[in-house]
Each structure stands twice: as C-alpha cells, then as structure tokens.
DNA sequence: ACTCTGATATACTTTACCTCA
DNA sequence: CCTGAGGTAAAGTATATCAGA
C-alpha cells in the first residue's frame, strides 16, 4: 500500500525502470513488495518490453509450485509472474503515464473497467501494437495474449478510445478507494480446448497431471485445478438438467395415463348403468380405444350368459388398457382413419 | 482407537466480463 | 452511443471426507 504513495510521485517517473531487467532477474527468489511494484510498473512502461522478455525466462520457475503450496502460490503470483494480484495494481492507475498515454492507454484491447489499472490480462498484442505499447504484465500474460485471437471488442476498443478512457479512469478512481480488485482471466480457446480434451480423458487430476497441464498451458496449477472444479460442476449441472427433463416427461406421461384411466373408469361406470349387458361382463373383457377413448369388449371373453360368470376368475393376458386387436366394438366400427387400435405401450 | 493435519472434493457465492435489448 | 439486465466463467469460501502420521 505504501507503494501506491510512491507511484503517486510523478516527479520521478520510473527512472528505475531502466533497471527493470536487473531487478526482475531476482524476482523468483524474493517476495518483497518493491519488486512486484517494479514489475507492475514495467507493464505500463514503454521501456518494459525487455523486462518482460526477461520475466518470460523466469516464469517457468513458477510452475514448480506443487499443489501443496497453494498459499505460496499466491505469493508467487505477485512476484514471479509480475502480476500483482492483490495490493498494488490499482495504484498503478495513478501512474503519471496517463498524460503520456492520453486516450489509448487506458483502452487498448482491455475491457473498459480494467484498462486504466495498468495491466490487463485481456489485452491483446495486436491492439497493443496499434498503440505502440507493450501491455502484457508477465510472461504468462504474454503467452496468453499470443494464444488469443483477435476479438470483436479489440477493434471496438480502438475506436472508442476516448470514451473508454474516460470510463476506465472513472472506474479506476472508484476502485482506488479500496485498492483491491480481482482481475479476471479469460482462457484462450486453445487453452480451453486443451483442457476440455484433458477433461474427456479424466475428470479429475492428480497433482502431477495438474502441474504438467499447467506447464503445458502456461497456467498456474491452481488455475487448472479451478478449471476442473468448475468443469465438473458444469457437467453435473447439465446432467441434472437432463435428469430433470426426463423426469418431467415421465411425470407428463403418467399424468396423461392417469387422466385416460379416469376417463376409462367413467366410461365403464356409464356403461354399467345404461347397459346391463355390459354390467355382467368381467372387467377384463372391457377395454378402451386409446384414440377415441371409448369402451369396447374383447373377443377373448364372450359375454356371460349366467350371473355366476361374473364371479368367475378371469385371467386377462394383457392389461386392461392394452387390449388385443380383435376387439368387439359396440360403437361405430373401425375405419381406416380410426381403426380402434390399442395404444402403443 | 483416537486425534490432528493436509489434500482434495463438492456446493455455493462472488466477481469480472460479455452480450444484447 | 449508452445503459442495465442477465448470462457465463474464473476464482473465492465453507464444509465434508479421507488418508497418513
């Protein structure tokens, strides 16, 4: 936080940046704030390109972090990656670079709200080149930028520099209040595709796989880990949606079946009251046409002639609602359009 | 057997960014 | 062109579980 005060000193704007290379060579082994500070400055400086190159040569060391060192990982992010993840970045907005980089400086490639903070993971080399600036903040970000193809908003940003700069600066001033802002990383399509491929092979990673994948994609192991966590969550969510849809359809089918059976029951009761003949029939000899939903008798059980038949056990070879095709129809005969076929199961 | 610790998982939340009306 | 709502994805947090010391 004291660093922010130092940054505010526009009277000596980054004379030390000429020593960026020298400083950054030690960043992997030290964690003091000054270095992180210097690197952060470098990202906004037009003289920092070489320092970034130097950083690139060191960032491989980062990936040596195992997953058992998550906390240390955070520290490393600030130092070895040259990307101040927590404290100083916001202060960087106050860099007196702004007069030097009038409009484009705060809007190149980055999103409106982030560009003025001095570094932006979403900045793209193309746009940076357009404004004659080196904008990436670390080797990882450099690679990341290389991964990304041009996107629509890059060109848009170039066209809206003035407005973007104004918005960015206003937002930056807001965020300077607390000095904390979480930068959002967007994985490139290539990175995502590679992670997807890995996910297809195994949905969980052991530490070795995680580190290897992180190295391969120039990400931190923690990022790979988080990606897999979120990916599993998304998979589960999708599966839940599919299950829900399936159960919904089952419910609808059962509701329809229930409605049909109710109607069938009503038909049977009506038949029983209006036609004593049908009242003597065993229930299993009656069925309903699923298309017109009217009751019919089946030929397998001829109408009883004696009342005692009503008590005799009948063994229907099929469910009541699924009669055989040879049905006796007391209602209008079947036609090609309406053959009184039983419903499909 | 019990406790402690660290790693890792899931569930849920927060945050930054994007898209679109 | 601007803006707000809503969606998405990365990251954070809380908690549970398990293995090993």
From TrEMBL:
Which regions are flagged for Basic and acidic residues bias? 164-173
The protein's UniProt keywords, in alphabetical order, are:
DNA-binding, Homeobox, Nucleus, Transcription, Transcription regulation
Q: Name one GO cellular component term.
A: nucleus
The question of whether Methyltransferase is a record keyword is answered with no
**One of the record's GO molecular function terms:** DNA-binding transcription factor activity, RNA polymerase II-specific
One Pfam entry for this protein is: HALZ
Residue segments, region Disordered: 48-119, 152-185, 295-345
Which PROSITE patterns does UniProt cross-reference here?
A: HOMEOBOX_1, HOMEOBOX_2
Q: Does the keyword DNA-binding apply?
A: yes
- Domain called Homeobox: residue spans: 178-238
Report the subcellular localization. Nucleus
In this entry, the residue ranges of the DNA-binding region are 180-239
Feature: compositional bias, Acidic residues: 60-79
Q: Mind telling me which SMART domains this protein's record contains?
A: HALZ, HOX
Q: Which family does it belong to?
A: Belongs to the HD-ZIP homeobox family. Class II subfamily.
What is the name listed in the Swiss-Prot or TrEMBL entry for this protein? Homeobox domain-containing protein
């Amino acid at each position: 936080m004291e660093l922010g005060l130092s940054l505010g000193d526009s009277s000596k704007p980054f004379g030390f940046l000429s020593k960026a290379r020298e400083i950054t060579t030690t960043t992997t082994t030290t964690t003091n704030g000054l270095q992180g500070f210097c690197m952060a400055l470098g990202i906004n400086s037009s003289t920092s390109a070489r320092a970034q190159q130097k950083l690139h040569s060191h960032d491989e060391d980062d990936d040596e972090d195992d997953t058992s060192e998550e906390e240390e990982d955070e520290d490393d992010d600030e130092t070895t990656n040259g990307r101040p993840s927590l404290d100083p970045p916001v202060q960087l907005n106050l860099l007196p670079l702004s007069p030097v980089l009038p409009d484009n400086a705060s809007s190149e490639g980055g999103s409106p709200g982030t560009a003025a903070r001095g570094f932006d993971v979403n900045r793209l080399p193309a746009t940076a080149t357009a404004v004659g600036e080196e904008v990436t903040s670390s080797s990882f970000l450099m690679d990341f930028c290389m991964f990304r193809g041009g996107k629509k908003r890059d060109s848009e940003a170039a066209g809206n520099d003035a407005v973007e700069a104004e918005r960015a600066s206003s937002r930056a001033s807001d965020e300077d209040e607390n000095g904390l802002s979480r930068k959002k990383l967007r994985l490139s399509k290539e990175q995502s595709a590679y992670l997807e491929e890995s996910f297809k092979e195994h949905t969980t990673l052991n530490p070795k796989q995680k580190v290897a994948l992180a190295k391969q994609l120039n990400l931190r192991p923690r990022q790979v880990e988080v990606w897999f966590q979120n990916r599993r969550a998304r998979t589960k969510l999708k599966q839940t949606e599919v299950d829900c849809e399936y159960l919904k359809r089952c419910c609808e089918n059962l509701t329809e079946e229930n409605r049909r059976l109710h109607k069938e029951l009503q038909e049977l009761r009506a038949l029983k009251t209006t036609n004593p003949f049908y009242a003597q029939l065993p229930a299993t000899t009656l069925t309903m046409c699923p298309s017109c939903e009217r009751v019919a008798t089946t030929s397998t059980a001829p109408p009883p002639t004696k009342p005692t038949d009503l008590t005799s056990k009948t063994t229907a070879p099929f469910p009541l609602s699924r009669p055989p095709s040879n049905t006796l129809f007391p209602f209008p005969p079947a036609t090609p359009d309406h053959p009184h076929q039983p419903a499909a199961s």
